[in-house]
Amino acid sequence: MDNAILLASGEIDFMIHGLFSYELFGQEVWITTSHVCVLIVMLVLIGFSFVAKHKLNRAAEIPDGFQNVIELIVEKLDGVVEGAMGRNAHKLVNYISTIFAFILISNISGLFGLRPPTADYGTTLALGLITFFLIHIAQFRYNKPKDIWKDMCSPLPPWLPIWLPINLISEIAVPVSLSLRLFANVLSGTVMMALIYGLLSKIAIIWPAALHVYFDLFSGAIQTYVFCMLTMTYVNQQMETE
Predict the structure, then answer these.
(1) Is 13 exposed, middle or buried (0-12, 13-18, 19+ CB in 10 A)?
(2) Which of 8, 159, 201, 230 has the fewest Cβ atoms within 10 Å of its own Cβ atom?
(3) Contact 11/122 with Cβ under 8 angstroms?
(4) Where do runs of H (alpha helix) occur along 10-110?
(5) Are 170 and 200 in contact (CB under 8 A)?
(6) CA distance 217 to 213
(7) Which residues contact 138 (CB under 8 A, 6 or more apart)?
(8) Alpha-carbon Rg of the chain, whole angstroms?
(9) Per-residue confidence of the chain (242 residues) as pLDDT tens digits?
(10) Where are the extended beta strands (E) located within the chain?
(11) How many CB atoms lie within 10 A of CB 60?
(12) Which CA distances in Å does 84 have to 53, 143, 177, 231, 238?
């Protein structure tokens, strides 16, 4: 629920709300405010992509303002991925750039009255699982089975797999920790802003901009960077074979 509704009702509400439901294979499925916010973020990104593609197809030799913005975004994202992944950057730059844009816009969507989609664990868990599968796809693609087994049994020899259960748990913990970190940080900012708007009522219209800058913009950008950096680090570790 957005801040305007919070002010109008005078109630503190930072929960996810069901909008309508339908039956699928005998199960009741709900469309919630999180689904709507994800759709809005996706439409914004798709719209920006089409505009950027149209602009670059007619790129001027001397770039104007919008072309400069596009080139700056691409250059910075390429630099971040190359700095983290080195020679493997070209293999993951498109994916990292996409999720960076999605997570960042989702995190700062509270500035525009939306409930951030990343404040829903269903969204962040999906992102964490994608990272998990990328890690293990890279692991099986760039490593030999005997090396994978050796790594899973370390620090003991491969013929003594005492540490195998612990290493398996640590692998499973990767998507959980990634998703919970992003979810908890964004949700805490959402809860704080909801409490501020609910407790201060109309007075809150005057001065919460500085708090939005921190909880939505600054913290949102930091969490986006952390998620993408950890994803690149985990995947790159599997690509760097000896």
Answers:
(1) middle
(2) 159
(3) no
(4) 33-57, 65-85, 89-108
(5) no
(6) 5
(7) 235, 238, 239
(8) 21
(9) 444 344 444 455 667 888 888 888 888 888 888 899 999 999 999 999 999 888 888 877 777 788 888 889 999 999 999 999 999 999 999 999 999 999 999 999 888 878 899 999 999 999 999 999 999 999 999 988 888 888 888 888 777 888 888 989 999 999 999 999 999 999 988 888 777 777 765 554 555 666 777 777 888 899 999 999 999 999 999 887 54
(10) 18-24, 27-32
(11) 8
(12) 27, 20, 20, 10, 13
Return the amino acid letter for 38. Answer: V
Which DSSP symbol is given to 161?
G
Q: For residue 225, what are its two tokens?
A: 């960077």
Pairing of strands 27-32, 18-24: antiparallel
**Rounded Cα gap, residues 41 and 128, in angstroms:** 19
